[in-house]
Amino acid sequence: MWVQNYPIRANLPNSGPCAEDFYNTLEPNGAVNRGFKHGDTSASSSRAHDTDIQEEFSRLQPDNSIIVDTPGQDGSYAEKVDMLYFCGHGDANQLYFGEKKGDAPNSDDVAHYDDIKLGDGPLKWLVLDACRTLHNTLIGGSWSIFNRWTKAFKPGGGLRYILGFSTTCKNDNFRGKVFAQLLNPVPGGSLIGEPIRIAWRYACEETEPNASEWAILRVGDQSSAIANDRWTDNSVTNMPTIPASGKQKFTYQKRLGPVATTPEVIG
Amino acid sequence: MATIFQVPKRMASFPAAVPVYKIADFPDSKTGTAYWLKRIEELSHGLGFSNVKPEFGREHVYNQDGPLLLRMYKASNSFLFFNRDLVGSTVPGTNILGPKQAKLRAIELIKSQQLLCNGTGGNFQTFYAGPGYTVAQTAEVGEGQCGDWLVSDESEPYKTEIRAHFGYLINGLPVFGPGAKTIISNVGEALSEEIHFWKNPGEIVSEREIIAPDTAISRLCKENQFLKVMKLHKKHPGQSSGRFYDDVELGYYATPPSNKQRFYIPVYKIRGTFESRIKLGNTKPNNQNQEDDTFRYDFVHFVSAMHGDAEGFQMNDFKRQIIY
């Protein structure tokens, strides 16, 4: 899923190639098919498609607020796949879409972390290839990462990971492909596909300069088995990972890049 | 252009001309099987593998031994090593090395692998680190109540591993891009990863006259995404602004290790920011603070610094990474 033509923001020309290559490179893992791909240049009517993209994430509620899902309903499109790769604009609080959704007076062209609640369907891994979504900062006092994007993990749901960036990132045309290559098994060889956290780490290292910081937010504490999730592991089921009530732990990690200083030549 | 983007008034001065380097040759994947086998064997032994059983994929050559993986990039002669049991673990690390010690150890490893070699055409490649280049990595665990997710503020980051980062200079100029870095990480005493993304520069193929930085900025502003932003600014006056930072840098660019790159050409690294409060319809206000309502886009672009056209030096893989 990608947005590259933004009516009121800077365009991101590499979003399409990045997300398309992710889709085309990732191999189905057993019974799971690759789901859908939507982008703003894949159809004759880009306006219609931009609206579709936001529809994947959001449902317009009776009060015209945007929410991804409502209790008792089937998952949105976004939740009908195992892994969702979004490539577009983002910041610490929201994702940006190309078009306002519908004509409702209060609809907008963003999906704020408060609006996103995922986990009803098979969706387990959400990739936000967008700037700063997983920035860990104290926004508005106590708005640490745990109090922002953990809201996307719906209680009683099966979402396990959000992968993204703590800093700005390049609008890169290779990252989706590299990520999928690392997740895939190597044909005829002994490699069965890397754990998701390792695949994201190295997809970012391969495509970003030294200063960028990738980040990962996942369900479970430091020793949870979720840390070793693999795309190719069919024992990872659609069962909920988060209880409907009670307490839940999350783990956050990010790359800490070097501090720019005067070079010290070695050799 | 000046109606929206502020252009720096003073920028550093740059040399009138700089060399273009050919990337040094190494055997390709079809003719160089023996080379790749020897290289993977040498590296594997130094990285603690007890078995060497190379596997050839389309773009990579691998060696796997339990949790250890060595992945070599046929397009660039770069490599990536990691220990799956250690790298990126969120378990608190014990005996994490201090930055000085981690850096010294990393340099020792690099030297033993003979990665500190100079370019084949002369003494022009250097390898650098800085005082802040060796950084402990952290993880953090938070616990919240389902539904409101208000997680306790008591969560504290803890150290998991330490990473020594290195960069590259060619003939004194920095090399930008993802394909110019070496990173070595340790968990306690054990090596958890080594990233070596680098293409050795070879002979100088030409000396190219350099354009002024403001000419490069003008070139950047002709890109569609900037033209579009300027149109928006005209349509919604006073609701957007932008600026280019004055720290424009001259250097070379290294593409990702999976790309076949033929030349190091001079580029300007241009950073800037764009802010907009333009809204579609009656956008609902966000509930945290006013900053939420401002769209901010920080960008970094690399623009060819060569005077004249870049004919002969352009490559398909480059096209989306460098603006010519």
Detail the poorly predicted runs of chain A.
Answer: 41-52, 59-75
- Using the alpha-carbon principal axes, give the shape of chain B: globular
- What fraction, in percent, of the residue positions of chain A are helical? 10-25%
Strand content of chain B: 35-45%
What is the number of strand segments of chain B?
Answer: 19
Sheet with the most strands: spatial strand order of chain A: 3-6-7-8-9
Taking the alpha carbons of the first and last residues of chain B, their distance comes to 19 Å
Biggest sheet of chain A, open or closed, and with what strands and sense?
Answer: 5 strands, mixed
Question: What is the share of helical residues of chain B?
Answer: 10-25%
**Average predicted confidence as pLDDT of chain A:** 77
Report the strand count of chain A.
10
Tell me, what's the shape of chain A? globular
Structural class, from secondary structure content of chain B? alpha+beta
Average pLDDT metric of chain B: 84
Query: Topology as H/E string of chain B?
Result: EEHEEEEHEEEEEEEHHEEEEEHE
Put simply, the count of helices of chain A is: 4
Order of helices and strands of chain A: HHEEEEEEEHHEEE
Largest sheet of chain B: 16 strands, mixed
